[in-house]
């Protein structure tokens, strides 16, 4: 237990106690969906001059260490990385190895997400090289944070919230390090080709645009111009060539097989059936599903329906994978709007198919833009760890109180025209529907349907959906009924014990604080 | 003659007298290539919120007038347009018709260039609807300005300088109106398809990113998503559908036939021969040529050389046209890096060929970025109206003093590794090589070679080129020799008479003032 202070708290619009100041920065409590109106101006990066960059476009320096030194790395800086290599990343740890070697302290690590391959960062969190992580903390890093061992307070943001925070200057990135599967010496970079191809580099877009200094690291240097340029070299200060930036077999996620679990298949089938009966699955519709087995299976059911009815989707949003690629290649959708590539079929399709479109957190998710894509999508199917009786949901912690998952695009997707959470009624005999979620990540007013194996609850606000399903053979119930059923089977589980110390903030898409995670008492 | 005041002047690094204040804004005199170092921050647009935009992405309003009113159009605002429709534009005049109808005064019109089809704007310049044009003034508008009839002082910028001025906040665009050959209701827009297809929309990029309010006007509305999205709807406030945004046959320029003039063909052949002898035309090289007949012909000579030697260019930069498209399709270049599309073959190729790449003033020309493409290009071939003995050149006015042309990408391209100006030794018996250029647009230190039909002058700074050509059969001469030859034939022409009043500033790529145009006395 280090510096996690007992902070002054205020109650936000969802009744959650959240700090007014954290990490020395003023925090705005969550005010409700669309209620907080920003009044300021976007972050204004310094004006640079071509006179300070090589005229021949060759920005190569010897190695990452030299690049970091020439970027002026020093105590207290914020250093960003992206997570497109997922658990195959080889670069993030190297950055902090170098920082440690240089004796630099109090860095803020600002990844778009962290993965188990980065667990060794705990040593740098312990020795003060890193003050805190602002970004999703998966697994061991989340546990470390939850136990109150991190000096600073963790900050969890959605993918869109991360773009918003950078755009709005809430997070000022001093040095962005962008691992690139292919790049040229000028810094133009792409993720869709090269030995460590990962598909998109969209999570590094904000970093490239707004960071003071930008380093591109690649293991596949090509002559200018690197085409496509997902990252513009015009934002890049230095390029570095290294032997290997990622482990290809770990870059693509292992979660892209459809589920074989009968329980999950049932959930998927019920969800698909619900969408069909609600009239959502029609010619020109659009959907987004997460990466899990249940979500993938729903895509299979949708495809079958489209095929039978000789209609097609206008677009499907990915996390792309072989099932979405099959839809595109079979003509069941006009476009894949891809935000992240989950398997090699996705990477290939993005590289080769002009209707497999790169998107970014800016186009899809940024709430502080003039609209974004998520609210236009007809239906999204997401997961949750807990849901309460008001349909508020949790996606970062389980009932044991540990913050172990990132928010990802989850909060952003809630803005779709219909948000469905297929969840098991209980996990390991712990009910998923609860009186109060441990961490409140998504307000119930944006969550329309909970699908469980024992029944489907429609948010009472969605009279249209209730009406559309009134003659359905699907088991439509109230959320209270579902909760009662679960508790009859499992009983009411004990709550975890928490300390008073805030260990992490959970930001809403507009930068306000929707909840705060407390230290888990052992 | 209206408000063109006699301003306080200072001498810049090229000895030109330029104002220290113009249009109420402090001006920085040109300091030399790469000498002015900006210290400020980029323009920071307001932070917007999705809460203020329709969730379904439908930003359509009834017509342009309603869109302008909802954007809050009022006296003194800066309104921007792009020139991708060239002389087929139907929109720019409409904007000011509406402003006039609404009784709005003192607008700044900020086009990326103006064309003869917009000559009627003189009435709005006369009646005070428009205070001034900041942007290239071609033909009648340039004459109007040169005669001192414009209330404010015109400001001429290169394409890159326009991006720089917007990025740096020197020009704050209140309302950008983007004519789009294809768009969706969200505001995603592309120029490469639709009845008024013009290819790129790159000149509107800065406007979309930095303007306070953005209107997209299209005559070809498609369901979301409009692919590709050259302009991101996430920057757009309103979309408008209208019957016709441009006259297709006038959109593509008429200057894309190779020259039949023996004089120009000679210039082209000499220029190509020079490049070959200088060792510039080799495997993997890159070049850019303007749109004129001479420049086009050079591409033909280059192609022939590449074909014969079984080598290819890495990239050619356009203004794309059928000749560059032929090179791409024949495999004589890996890529076209296109900044503007000059004919229908260019538009088709951009739409269909993944190696025909969209660029923008940001990637190619912005001097206040971390490098740009122009300095990486091996050779550019440009025009000029006048060149002086120090190789300083003029591109906006002729010897009669009238500012009749825009700068275009000309200044930006001077940064290439070798800049060649093929020019006739005289035009209408007026020598092109002069003691002092009427307007100084490009510093001689960036201009390497002047090719005329009677000899080629290499800038004495380019010892490497002088050395490479020392045994050439080409007529290598000094610039003084060329000037003497011309004057022997034509005599020394009389200089035009100028008033004291400054009518237009000529900006350098870094926002400093490289020259100022004076009122032409009748």
Detailed description of the structure:
2 copies of one chain form a homodimer. The first copy, chain A, has a 9-stranded mixed β-sheet. In chain A, strands 5-14-13-10-6-7-8 form a 7-stranded parallel β-sheet. The model of chain A has no long low-confidence stretch (mean pLDDT 95). Chain A is globular, with a radius of gyration of 23 Å. Chain A is 24% helix and 23% strand. The termini of chain A are close together. The relative contact order of chain A is 0.14. Chain A contains 15 helices and 30 strands. Chain A folds into 2 domains: 9-32 and 58-252 and 499-520, Glutaconate Coenzyme A-transferase, CATH 3.40.1080; 262-498, Glutaconate Coenzyme A-transferase, CATH 3.40.1080. In chain A, helix 8 crosses helix 9. Chain A is α/β, with parallel strands linked by helices and 522 residues long. At the A-B interface, loops of A face loops of B.
Name of the CATH architecture of the largest domain in chain A = 3-Layer(aba) Sandwich
Oligomer: homodimer
What does the radius of gyration of chain A come to?
Answer: 23 Å
Average of per-residue pLDDT values of chain A: 95
Name of the top-level CATH class of the largest domain in chain A: Alpha Beta
Number of strands of chain A: 30
- Determine the structural class of chain A based on helices, strands and strand pairing: alpha/beta
Identify the most extensive interface between protein chains: A-B, 65 and 65 residues
Distance between the termini of chain A: 12 Å
Q: Are there runs of chain A of 5+ residues with pLDDT below 50, and where?
A: none
Helix content of chain A: 10-25%
CATH homologous superfamily of the largest domain in chain A, by name? Answer: Glutaconate Coenzyme A-transferase
* Spatial strand arrangement across the major sheet of chain A: 18-17-16-15-19-22-26-27-28
β-sheet strand percentage of chain A? 15-25%
Number of helices of chain A: 15
Q: Could you please say which CATH topology of the largest domain in chain A applies here? A: Glutaconate Coenzyme A-transferase
Outline type of chain A:
globular
